[in-house]
Amino acid sequence: MSDPLRLGIAGLGTVGAGVVRILQENSTIISRRAGRDIRISAVSARERTKPRGIDISGYAWEHDPVALALRSDVDVHIELIGGEAGAAKDSVEAAISTGKNVVTANKAMLAVHGQKIAELAELAGCVLRFEAAVAGGIPVIKALSESMAADRIIRVMGVMNGTCNYILTRMEETGLAYGEIFREAESLGYLEADPNLDVGGIDAGHKLALLTSIAFGTRVDFAGLEIEGIQKITIEDIEQARDMGFRIKLLGVARMTDDGMEQRMQPCLVPADSPIGQIKNATNIVVLEGAAAGQIFLRGAGAGEGPTAMAVLGDVVDIARGRRISTFGQPATSLQPSRPAQSAEVGPYYLRLLLEDRPGVLATVASALGDAGVSINRMRQYGHESEAAPVIIVTHRTTRNRINTAIEGIVGSGASLSDPVALRIEEL
Amino acid sequence: MSDPLRLGIAGLGTVGAGVVRILQENSTIISRRAGRDIRISAVSARERTKPRGIDISGYAWEHDPVALALRSDVDVHIELIGGEAGAAKDSVEAAISTGKNVVTANKAMLAVHGQKIAELAELAGCVLRFEAAVAGGIPVIKALSESMAADRIIRVMGVMNGTCNYILTRMEETGLAYGEIFREAESLGYLEADPNLDVGGIDAGHKLALLTSIAFGTRVDFAGLEIEGIQKITIEDIEQARDMGFRIKLLGVARMTDDGMEQRMQPCLVPADSPIGQIKNATNIVVLEGAAAGQIFLRGAGAGEGPTAMAVLGDVVDIARGRRISTFGQPATSLQPSRPAQSAEVGPYYLRLLLEDRPGVLATVASALGDAGVSINRMRQYGHESEAAPVIIVTHRTTRNRINTAIEGIVGSGASLSDPVALRIEEL
Question: Are the beta carbons of B33 and A138 separated by less than 8 Å?
Answer without folding.
Answer: no
